[in-house]
Amino acid sequence: MTRSIGRALVAAGLALAFALPASAQDEMPKVGDQAPEFTMTGSDGKDYSLSDFKGEKAVVLAWFPKAFTGGCTKQCTAYAQQGDLLKDLNVAYFTASTDTVEDNTKFAESVGADYPILSDPGGEVAKKYGVMMPDRPLAKRVTFYIDKEGIVRGIDTMIVTEDAGAETAEMLKELGLTE
């Protein structure tokens, strides 16, 4: 098993077993589960739904806690700067947070994002994915890898923010989601 896949599977298991409260454990989809449907507005003003990509492309949904904060800025900047590693893979990739569309639009501009940053200001989608922090209206840093049929094929909770784009490209290849 390669390092990235092993790390993601171990991290997902540990997160489910130890780091998440019981209510979130019940909500977070597991590898092999159907990913929850979502529709969120991107920093480009367009609405994106998981079903838009069914049968066409794999989807990466990389949650982050808060725009304009240290680790989140590094993560979203990494997707922008390392995006050339993702663009030829025939996948749709997004970062997402519970920030407003207005905040994420400004944030996308500040980090030079050439991909949509999705907004879930009420946290409804984050709750479906089991990534809401129990004590704050923010999402945890978790990346979901979803295949063309909407099945979760990988979950990563051990994100190295500075290398998020490159690690996502590597994980997509290892999971066979680039075709």
Automatic annotation (TrEMBL):
According to its UniProt record, the EC number is: 1.11.1.24
Matches recorded under SUPFAM superfamilies: Thioredoxin-like (SSF52833)
Cellular component per GO? cytoplasm
GO MF annotation terms: thioredoxin peroxidase activity
Indicate the segments forming the Thioredoxin domain, all copies: 29-177
Name the job this protein performs: Thiol-specific peroxidase that catalyzes the reduction of hydrogen peroxide and organic hydroperoxides to water and alcohols, respectively. Plays a role in cell protection against oxidative stress by detoxifying peroxides and as sensor of hydrogen peroxide-mediated signaling events.
Kindly state the subunit structure of this protein.
Monomer.
Similarity comment: Belongs to the peroxiredoxin family. BCP/PrxQ subfamily.
- What is the name of the protein in this document? thioredoxin-dependent peroxiredoxin
Which species is the source of this protein?
Tautonia plasticadhaerens
The opening ranks of the lineage are:
Bacteria, Pseudomonadati, Planctomycetota, Planctomycetia, Isosphaerales
